[in-house]
UniProtKB/TrEMBL annotation:
PANTHER family: BPTI_KUNITZ INHIBITOR DOMAIN-CONTAINING PROTEIN, KUNITZ-TYPE PROTEASE INHIBITOR-RELATED. Transmembrane segments: none annotated. InterPro entries: Kunitz_BPTI, Kunitz_BPTI_sf, Prtase_inh_Kunz-CS, TFPI/VKTCI-like. GO terms for cellular component: extracellular space. Residues 5-55, 67-117, 129-179 form the BPTI/Kunitz inhibitor domain. One of its GO terms (molecular function) is serine-type endopeptidase inhibitor activity. This is BPTI/Kunitz inhibitor domain-containing protein. Keywords: Disulfide bond. It comes from Dibothriocephalus latus (Fish tapeworm). SMART domains: KU (SM00131).
Length: 202
């Protein structure tokens, strides 16, 4: 019988370039590979989500890593609003969860996602000292603090709730701590007088 938890990834003898995902028992993760179109075995799935769902109970599955997990909508067709951590941008973003499968990179609130992944350091394309303050493309009005590289201070801004970048912090203190070592950081004494009062935008 087919052992989905230990079967090798087999391209098969044919030469059709069919993109598939297979479970790698050594690393405990689903990986993309090119299936030839014939023979091989059942360790091939059309999407990353289907592969993850099929092998969810494998004992050799790699533990969930909140900082590197993919955002998985799942194979079902529900429309549940969720937030997930994007490993590429290093920021939490909105996505639609189908209601089944998926993974643990799924949070009901943006704030929950940001809090859970605050210690993730894999922001490969994010320069906390020089990234612009970006309100994103959505229309929510969320009070966030961003680092203004030109002035070297953290400032209050309105975040739209999706997209943008990782230059957004829930509190002034979080922003100050994250950017404390930036070489272009200035003194924020004047800024504190302006922004420390509990000023809310919603």
């Amino acid at each position: 019988p087919f052992d989905k938890c230990n079967a090798p990834i087999e391209a098969g003898p044919c030469k059709e370039p069919v993109p598939r995902y297979g479970y790698d028992a050594v690393t405990g993760t689903c990986k993309p590979f090119t299936y030839g179109g014939c023979d091989g075995n059942a360790n091939k799935y059309e999407t990353h989500e289907k592969c993850e769902y099929a092998i969810a109970k494998c004992q050799n599955k790699a533990p969930f890593d909140k900082c590197y997990a993919a955002i998985a909508g799942g194979p079902c067709r529900g429309a549940v609003e969720r937030y997930g951590y994007n490993v590429v941008t290093g920021a939490c973003e909105h996505f639609t969860y189908g209601g089944c499968a998926g993974n643990e990179n799924s949070y009901e609130m943006l704030e929950d996602c940001e809090s859970a992944t605050a210690d993730c350091t894999n922001t490969a394309h994010f320069d906390k000292c020089n990234s612009p303050i970006d309100k994103g493309t959505c229309d929510a009005e969320l009070a966030r603090y961003g680092y203004d590289a030109a002035k070297g201070v953290c400032k209050l801004f309105t975040y739209g709730g999706c997209d943008g970048n990782a230059n957004k912090y829930g509190t002034h203190e979080q922003c100050e701590t994250a950017t404390a070592t930036c070489p272009n950081k200035g003194t924020s004494s004047m800024y504190l007088e302006l922004y420390v009062p509990s000023q809310r935008l919603w």
